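Lab notebook, bench 4. Continuing the backlog of folding jobs that were queued last week. Each job is logged with the same field layout so the records can be merged later without manual cleanup. Today's entry covers GNAT family N-acetyltransferase, a 139-residue chain. Filled in by technician R.K.

JOB TYPE: sequence-to-structure
TARGET: GNAT family N-acetyltransferase
LENGTH: 139
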Amino acid sequence: MKIKSFEIFDYESAVTFWKSIEGVTLNESDTKGSISSFLFRNPGLSFVAKDNNEIVGTILCGHNGRAAQIYHLAVSNSHRGQGLGKELVDLSLSKLVEANIPRCNIFVYSNNCVGNKFWLKNGWDDPTTWKVLQKQLDV
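JOB STATUS: finished
OUTPUT FIELD FOLLOWS
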């Protein structure tokens, strides 16, 4: 297995992979153009794991200069329980530390039991003092 930087030429394979993973939801922010812009603005923070040239893990990570966000951490069922998810997270977090970013947030759907269990097991907090509000923009 090999972990490498997520490049835009990984996009089509990543979308196919994400669609196969329970708990990963794609939306208007996941177009090829949007992901390309995200990767361009955040070089070296997002990764794919490949086994026999097939994607078995992904993480998208970016920051705004003061805080970071992780999206689409996903590991194939065949590779779960082997530390790959933690390795991808640790790799992105180490790059954030190098960039002097002091905090990272994740967005996990409330009903994503597998995802929530993973994050809580790995030391992430579930704050009850704030919530996310969102507005869709006509672009």
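OBSERVATION: The first helix runs from residue 11 to 19.
SIGNED: R.K.
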